[in-house]
Amino acid sequence: MQSATRSHARKMERKVRFTKAARQDLEEIYYWIAGHDAPAKAEYVLDRLSAAAQRMAALPGAGSRPRELPTGVKGDYRQVFFKPYRVIYRVTPAEIVIHLIADGRRNLNALLLQRLTSDQAE
């Protein structure tokens, strides 16, 4: 019975898609860490961020709504953390769309608004 439940849960996982800008965020994070610390540390951080994305596929509602999300923005936007990074994504019936991966210590108000409006075209 337990394996049937696990199998059913896997079937309900959504596809995870990174916007072009989110893929660029990952690349910039990697090169910054590799240049200021070590390539192994950069790999570790990217592995952890990728693992967070895969957890979103299985549990898309687990994240919280970003507090910087402008009033009136429609859609089920959520965030998860791998400190200090925040991964901001939108849940749709078919997929998880990752819009932004950024250092959570930044002021994300303007960046988030810009990213969500420009990503609508992707």
Précis, in short:
By secondary structure, the protein is an alpha+beta fold. It has helices spanning about 1-10, 20-35, 40-60, 110-120; strands at about 15-20, 75-80, 85-90, 95-105.
* Overall SS class: alpha+beta
The total strand number stands at 4
Spans of at least 5 consecutive residues with low confidence: 3-10
**Fold-level CATH name:** YaeB-like fold
CATH architecture: 2-Layer Sandwich
Mean pLDDT: 84
What's the CATH class label?
Answer: Alpha Beta
What is the CATH superfamily classification?
RelE-like
Q: What is the helical fraction, as a range of percent?
A: 40-55%
Overall radius of gyration: 15 Å
Q: Which strands sit side by side, in order, in the main sheet?
A: 1-4-3-2
Tally of distinct domains? 1
Instruction: Assign an overall shape.
Output: globular
Q: Please outline the major beta sheet.
A: 4 strands, mixed
Beta content comes to: 15-25%
State the separation between the terminal residues, measured CA to CA.
41 Å
**What is the H/E string?**
HEHHEEEH
- List the total number of helices: 4
Labels describing this entry:
122 residues; alpha+beta; YaeB-like fold; four-stranded mixed sheet; 4 helices; 4 strands; 48% helix; globular
